[in-house]
Amino acid sequence: MSAPMVLRHTGTRPETDRYDRYPTRLGTPAPHLERADPTVWGKIESPQLASFDADGFAILDELLTPAEVAEFGAEIIRLAGDPELRDDKRLIVEKSSNRVRSIFQVHKLSAAVAELVRDPRVLRLAEQVLGSEVYVHQSRVNYMPGFRGTGFYWHSDFETWHAEDGMPAPRAVSLSITLTDNYPINGSLMVMPGSHHTFVPCLGSTPAEHYRESLQEQEIGVPTTEDITTLANRYGISQFTGRAGSALLFDSNLMHGSSNNITPFPRSNIFVVFNSVHNALVEPFAAPARRPGYIGSRDFTPLSA
Length: 305
Ligand code: 6CS
Ligand code: FE
Known about the structure:
By secondary structure, this protein is α+β, with helices and mostly antiparallel strands. The protein has helices at residues 52-55, 66-81, 106-109, 111-117, 120-130, 157-165, 211-216, 225-235, and strands at 5-6, 11-13, 18-20, 32-34, 57-60, 91-93, 100-104, 134-142, 172-178, 190-191, 198-199, 238-239, 247-251, 256-257, 269-276.
């Protein structure tokens, strides 16, 4: 049986005494919630974003030129091999190998990425959707190596950011810029178009400091197989494929995930999360403590071009 759809079952959380419009990490199953917030908070002017409101994502072909793809490709190889980063907490390795899986806070580690996050091509898109100035909530490079690259199980990013980082509302967008060609065969991202309208409360409480493990393989804050079935039947599943330099802009509550990559073709991307300055983090809604700033930034200074 799949969970029925109801309008609201929000309320005050006993742990924090706070009213919570998106309750998650619960002890007992709860129905799916209809999103109470808008998706587009500003005015869409870019034709590329025409279906963002309905789908919860937009594909941006050729966001980067081939020369830029080469430049950023070299930059992320440099970062992955940087001996100074080997013992840095911002570097996450694969669970079953010692290969680099992600590096966080890349916009602080790389001058080129710092420039990229405030590039008007990028910034204006985030600002149109979020209807305000924005800042970087999280940035990372995902490497997804060939052969033994492991995917990300189905999840909503907002579920984690709300529970663990104290992000009040789904007023954030992620930009995933691909630096390699994305084929259906090399673990490309799958999304459920329109699923950003439904919030799926997840089961289980958040253990202290579980986040490092979660960045290798997420086990807390993932929907049940029933939830995923209900959403997939309702919204369907699309896959984001495209040439290096293309990008996907997506709503923070879009249901998404990726398979393992056993092909020889790696799939690396630069991932930047923009949050509205009017949606600054508060205390976590369902976790014992805040995550470190390199995962969920508390520097809310707006970006300017
Ligand atoms: O932890 C985060 O912020 C992001 N990473 C994972 C594996 N899931 C939630 C979110 O996308
Ligand atoms: Fe995600």
